[in-house]
């Protein structure tokens, strides 16, 4: 009921905003505006002036690239300040309804009043994967390289930022992650050292709530058990007798055959030092002691950094302790492990990258797993998080990463310039010029799609130009934007993603929402932005490759079902990306070969840039998803939030943890057992052993059974006993393989 009210209220606000859109209010009502402003507190005047200045300063700003989510939060915060200053008085003209850049952002209109409604804030954070509080938001900012050469260097800049009230500062290479108070965004535009400023959007949580069944088949009735009452004291469940892993044992253990491996090969992880985990939080809900007491977690939990060190805990901030759920799964497979170590992957990309290194350098973990993807991580290059993964892999850490839960097809292919310029009229009457991409799927510049009621999409568009954030100058040469229209009224622009990319990152991240109770029929356009002549910036060359992914998984695009969607550091050479099969759909539970979950992300974007930023011709084809592990298995408490889907899949009273977030730790734990059996193996050799002994699976999106490696399931479902038999029967292992290069065909536009 509460959700219905929220949608309804949002609907009214948006309908009002749309009326305003159809009949733009001329900004000439200056006299009456001035009269009212004179009557209210001076702060209202300041806010109104700030709105005008910031709209000019932040829209296609030349020296600072700011992302759509941060831009929206900035103006939502100004709206809050105006609300406070007016104390209930009304302005004759609503500056947020008619101003360029704000007026037609339906998301902005829907989330008006965000800072006085904790339910709205919670929803915004959840849907946009933003790490925000009422006071500030975690950002990633990329610093100009000359800062490191000037007197005082980067430390001097960090001190300056801290004097501005920017806290929780973590740096990795030339990226600074920090908690930015909302009022300071304007001030940052005056610091020439900061080139890219972006809300740190980290996807957490098992899967999208609109995929309730994950493509999994119904569970056979023999698995269903009577639900147990209450969350405490329940247990029992189908525990494997050979494990000392507490009240609940993951069925993933049986699915991988690691229960047999422990008994047959006398391994349990006890000779290893620790396994590292990176996720959102570990002990925010305060369940750690109970889980240790019941034997579901080891006694030695090393928390290097939990989420409260990067974000102020307040109403609306809802960490899920996914790290603890991951730890439960690992401990079921490796019950002898002396310690598990945790570092939050939130707090920005720089904080994530530092955490990856600390788990190896400080905690000496020889196996590490994470389940977080940042929206701005590169598709076609190895970003800073991926570089951290490669660094620890080179030091011997076997690194496992969730392939992602973005199974809904994205878009991938060549940029196909339609060859003519189009002026797009904005609500204030000004025009912006684009050269649009013609979609080969439709033969036109429109890509139709549907957005279900009440859901949000998080579009990530990238193209094959160098990221400033990864390589420094020159950055991207071309600026692509996303424009989304109402299909029934083709001139009505409902959303625009217009980050500045010149000299910055070839990235456009756009959250959109459908606040209505019925589906929205929309058209998506991708435009190459043509700056006005007086701006002095050339429009740049057409990119070669473009790709679009909906991280929220809620938009149904008419694109090829074989388009890749797995991106970021799980694609790094040092990582093993893991896909997911529901445990009940695996061989040891009666389904052979196992069935992959629909939502499990698919590989593989090619690698276009070397570490030094130079272009690889032709691009290197990467096999990203290495293998599939089990998910949907029982834990004692996770998922810990009611909005996370299908809490108890098998009806036995214990919540079931779904997604590649759950499959990756299972496989990491199997890798730890292999590492214990033969400590001489390199991470790459462990990966190859698991691939060679996996049970082949089918990619359902391609015709026929895909014999051997495929982009959805990699080498197939990991097989613990087969891996250990191969290990015992063989003396030598292949040397590290070189990456093969090949000529790729992405299809003609
Ligand atoms: Ca852009
Ligand atoms: Ca269950
Ligand atoms: Ca296959
Ligand atoms: Ca197939």
Automatic annotation (TrEMBL):
First-level EC class = hydrolase
Where does the UniProt annotation place the signal sequence? 1-17
EC?
Answer: 3.4.21.62
Give GO terms: molecular function aspect only.
serine-type endopeptidase activity
Per its UniProt record, what Gene3D superfamilies does this chain match? Peptidase S8/S53 domain
Membrane-spanning residues: none
State the reactions this protein catalyses. Hydrolysis of proteins with broad specificity for peptide bonds, and a preference for a large uncharged residue in P1. Hydrolyzes peptide amides
* Compositional bias ranges of the Basic and acidic residues kind: 225-234
Q: Is this entry keyworded Signal?
A: yes
Annotated region described as Disordered, given as residue ranges:
207-253
Source organism, top-level taxon: Eukaryota
The alphabetical list of record keywords is: Hydrolase, Protease, Serine protease, Signal
Q: Which residues form the Peptidase S8/S53 domain?
A: 656-716
Q: Which InterPro entries match?
A: Glr3161-like_dom (IPR034075), Peptidase_S8/S53_dom (IPR000209), Peptidase_S8/S53_dom_sf (IPR036852), Peptidase_S8_Ser-AS (IPR023828)
Recorded GO CC terms:
membrane
A Gene Ontology biological process noted in the UniProt record is: protein processing
Under PANTHER family, the record lists: NEUROENDOCRINE CONVERTASE 1 (PTHR42884:SF14), PROPROTEIN CONVERTASE SUBTILISIN/KEXIN-RELATED (PTHR42884)
Which protein, by its recorded name, is this?
A: subtilisin
The protein's organism comes out as Vitrella brassicaformis (strain CCMP3155)
